[in-house]
């Protein structure tokens, strides 16, 4: 963060903890997601999500009026609810990107997180994450002129 004053957030690799088939699947999914997707996003200059369980945020980027005010806003319709309340970390990163801040990935940083062990918990998590991801990507695409570019 010392090298780039426009770096608003950074994240590292996350390793799911727990036992059972669902956790094994998530260990594979997280490994592929970080080693391929996050690394690729980092290389092209636009990491789309800095996960809530392991992120570093620049305080003045969070206090940017257009970030803090919009992040604190209440959902007024179903699309807002999906975007704002179902994936708060992704929504925060969308706001940072729209304000011209960068979000980066550091593969040398590692953290552990507890992953859903049962199918119902896993399903409920993904039922939040997938629509939120789609809503935030659409928002970024609609505002592509203001999003950080390489």
In short:
This protein is an alpha+beta fold. The chain has helices at 21-44, 59-63, 65-71, 78-85, 88-98, 119-142, and strands at 7-17, 55-57, 102-114. Strands 2-1-3 form a three-stranded mixed sheet.
Structural write-up:
The chain is an alpha+beta fold. It has a domain of 98 residues: Spore Coat Polysaccharide Biosynthesis Protein SpsA, Chain A, CATH 3.90.550. The protein is 53% helix and 18% strand. A three-stranded mixed β-sheet has the order 2-1-3. The radius of gyration is 15 Å and the shape is globular. The mean pLDDT is 92.
Instruction: Please trace the helix and strand order, writing H or E for each element.
Output: EHEHHHHEH
Could you tell me how far the N terminus lies from the C terminus, measured between alpha carbons in angstroms? 17 Å
Major sheet: arrangement of strands: 2-1-3
CATH architecture of the domain at 7-74 and 89-118: Alpha-Beta Complex
Shape descriptor reads: globular
- Proportion of beta-strand residues: 15-25%
For the record, what is the CATH homologous superfamily label of the domain at 7-74 and 89-118?
Spore Coat Polysaccharide Biosynthesis Protein SpsA, Chain A
CATH class of the domain at 7-74 and 89-118: Alpha Beta
Q: How is the biggest beta sheet arranged?
A: 3 strands, mixed
> How much is the radius of gyration in Å?
15 Å
Layout of strands and helices, then pairs:
Layout (H helix, E strand, L loop, with lengths): L6 E11 L3 H24 L10 E3 L1 H5 L1 H7 L6 H8 L2 H11 L3 E13 L4 H24 L8
Parallel strand pairs: 1-3
Antiparallel strand pairs: 1-2
Helix pairs in contact: 3-5, 4-6, 5-6
Subcellular location: Membrane
GO cellular component, one term: cell periphery
Pfam family, one: Chitin_synth_2
């Amino acid at each position: 963060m010392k090298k780039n004053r426009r770096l608003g957030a950074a994240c590292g690799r996350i390793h799911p903890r727990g036992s059972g088939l669902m956790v094994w699947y998530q260990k594979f999914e997280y490994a592929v997601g970080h080693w391929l997707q996050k690394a690729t996003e980092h290389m092209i200059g636009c990491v789309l999500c800095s996960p809530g369980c392991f992120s570093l945020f620049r305080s003045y980027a969070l206090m940017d009026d257009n970030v803090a005010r919009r992040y604190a806003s209440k959902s007024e319709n179903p699309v807002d609810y999906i975007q704002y309340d179902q994936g708060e970390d992704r929504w925060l990163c969308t706001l940072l990107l729209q304000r011209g801040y960068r979000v980066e990935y550091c593969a040398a940083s590692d953290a552990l997180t507890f992953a859903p062990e049962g199918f119902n918990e896993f399903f409920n998590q993904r039922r939040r994450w997938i629509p939120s991801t789609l809503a935030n990507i659409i928002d970024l695409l609609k505002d592509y002129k203001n999003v950080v570019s390489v």
